[in-house]
Amino acid sequence: MxxxxxxxxxxxxxxxxxPAPIVLVPTMGFLHEGHLSLMRLARERAGASGRVVASIxxxxxxxxxxxxxxxxxxxxxxxxxLLRAEGVDAVFAPEAGEIYDxxxxxxxxxxxxxxxxxxxxxxxxxxxxxxxxxxxxxIIRPDAAVFGQKDFQQLAVIRTMVRxxxxxxxxxxxxxxxxxxxxxxxxxxxxxxxxxxAAAPVLARALDEAETMAPTGITASRLRSHVxxxxxxxxxARVQSVDIRDAATLAPVxxxxxxxxxxxxxxSFGQVFLIDNRVVHPAQExx
Length: 287
Ligand code: PAF
Prior knowledge:
three-stranded antiparallel sheet, Rossmann fold, 287 residues, 2 domains, Pantoate--beta-alanine Ligase, Chain: A,domain 2
C-alpha cells in the first residue's frame, strides 16, 4: 500500500493507474470495523482491476470552537496496518498545511441542508464537510466514493452537492455497522467513560422500538415523543435532538407516516457527542 502526503505525489500515482476505476473512501482515521466495511464496498465497486484509495484527514474546518478537534482520536500507524490488511491500494494522509492555504477564499455549502438538524447544533460543520470533500474529489478525481449512512445528513449533503455541481462521481452509501449491543460504530466511542459506554446503546434500543412502532399507524409526532422520552429516561444521556424527517428529502413530517421516514438522534454522553439514525417504514406506503 502506497502512502502519500502530498497532492502532487498522489496525483502522479493516480495518473499512472488510470483508466482503471478509482474508488475513494474519505475518513478522519481511527478506523473501526465500520470504516473497513466501507473499504470492502469500495473494493467491490472498483473490481479486480480498479484501485481503492482511502484518505485520512482530521479536517479542522468541520469542527466548531470548543468541539473535539484536539481530542479526536488518532492512530495513524494502526490505521495503515488495517488498510493494508484490507488490500487498500493507497492512502492519502496529508498535513493540514498541504490542504488549506491561508489565502483560500472559496467554500462549498449546501445552503438549506447545512442549516437544519445537525447543522443547527454544529453551525459551519457541513460547510467544512462539503469543502473538504470537494477538495478530496478534485485531488483524487475518483469514479465513485463511499460514505457511511450513520452520517445520514452528511450523505444527503454530499449527494446534493454532487448533483448541484455536476460532479461526475457515483456516491455509494454504506449501512451502519453496530457493536454486539447495538451501539453504532464510531471513532468517538473509545472516548466514552465505561458508565457512558454502558448507557449509549439506549440510542439503538430507542430506534429498534421506533422501527417496530412505525407500521402501527402512529403519527410521526407521537413516535418522536416516544423516542425522546425513551432517551430522556437514561440519566447519562444529554439529548441534543430527536427528529423524524422524510427519508428521501429530509423535509419535516408530523402526521401519520405514509412514506419511509428517518429518525435522527443526537445525544452527548459526558464529553462525547454521538449520532444514530434508522429509516422506518409505514405498513403501507402512499404515493
Ligand atoms: O465522515 C467523516 O469521517 C468526515 O466527515 C469526512 C467525510 C471524511 C470529511 O472530513
